[in-house]
Amino acid sequence: MSVDTARPAAPRPAGLDNRVVVDGTALSWRDLPELRLPAPVALLAHRARYALAAARHHAVHGTELLLTTAGRADSVLRAELSEAGFTVIDTGGADLPPSRPRAGEPGRLWLLTSGTTGRPKRVGHTLASLTTVRGRQPGRTWLCPYAPGSYAWWQVVTLSLTQPGQHLVVVEPEQLDDWPTLAATHGVDAASGTPTFWRRALHRDPAALARVPLRQLTLGGEPVDQTILDRLREVYPTTRISWIYASSEVGAAIVVHDGRAGFPVEWLDRPAPGRPTLGVRDGELVVTSPYHGVGLAGPIRTGDRVQVVDGRVLITGRLDSDEINVGGSKVSASAVRDVLTAHPQVAWARVGARRAPLLGHLVVAEVVPTGTVGPPDEAALARWCADRLPEYAVPRRIRLLPEIPVKETLKSDV
Known about the structure:
This protein has helices at about 50-60, 75-85, 125-130, 150-160, 180-185, 195-205, 205-210, 225-235, 320, 335-340, 380-385, and strands at about 1-5, 20, 25-30, 35, 40-45, 65-70, 85-90, 110, 120-125, 140-145, 165-170, 190-195, 215-220, 240-245, 250-255, 265, 275-280, 285-290, 300-310, 310-320, 325, 330, 345-355, 360-370, 395-400. The chain is α/β, with parallel strands linked by helices. Among the domains are: about 1-195, Rossmann fold (3-Layer(aba) Sandwich), CATH 3.40.50; about 320-400, ANL, C-terminal domain (GMP Synthetase, Chain A, domain 3), CATH 3.30.300. The strands form six sheets. An eight-stranded mixed sheet has the order 3-2-11-10-12-13-14-15, with helices on both faces. A five-stranded mixed sheet has the order 7-5-6-8-9, with helices on both faces. The chain has a five-stranded antiparallel sheet with strand order 16-20-19-18-17. Mean pLDDT is about 90; it is low at about 1-10. Belongs to the ATP-dependent AMP-binding enzyme family. This is Acyl-CoA synthetase (AMP-forming)/AMP-acid ligase II.
């Protein structure tokens, strides 16, 4: 990879003078290293500095770009990208030339899906389709903990690139456990993360979290339940707390600011020019979005299960992994998880299935205690569940973990 310290020749994005803190150093978008990138290029970033430089390069020059982390790109994916005509540049290793060279498509950005239902797929976007915040915003310093190239990462990055006064503090993987200190040091007052990200912060050091003077707190990327919203409200009683439903396929589709899980049922099938239309088909969320990826126009089945409760539409989990069959009775893993996380001594829970004779499967769970008092034992948690769930849905095994697990996507489905 060719890298020098020259600045881009034709700066166009409005946010190039915004401050960016990366690797502990404060600079501006203009001051990031200039990458000399071929087109099309797949950049596998080992450090955030080069991911940001690639995003700036695309914003200025329009070079066709796929951006992800080196950890997500195994040998099979690298070969697939080479076959698709990309020059694969690894910022910390060997590059791979295209096996079938082609001309780049100006202005094209590619995102990789999360891969939760199989191998990651490429979804085409443009900087415009990824830039969903267009109106003038109050000045903010945003924390960006997301993996480079993910949809959530691009949402924060495009905000800083296109809006004056939207500064950025980037969290590298090794800083994840102590990000509140980094945020407080650099004046962060707005932060976006997954529910798992916020649960980890609440679990590890709630006092350090409370010292970050957040005016805007955003959740997304996983189902958002009332428990995590309420626990964050206890720490931040006056902060605006929002949750967002977004994906590589449909873009940012739902934004809720009222502090409640789910969204009002009145939003279903409500057309609004320039905004996504939401629907439910056979218990699945369906979105028609102006921010969709290439080739995905019209109603798109998201694969996410929804449930209408007390006038709210709750997004509870993936259709292909949420249902557990226990002796012919259907159990929602997300419903069991929500019961467990509602326990005052539970910081996080994951629910799954274990094969069993006769019944087919049994419900099992992993739990991280809050650590504020003596942790509840398995019997106490089972009784808690038994008071709130049908007998067949009560976990038959509950394993206590010392720490909330998280993967590169900031989700806990490890």
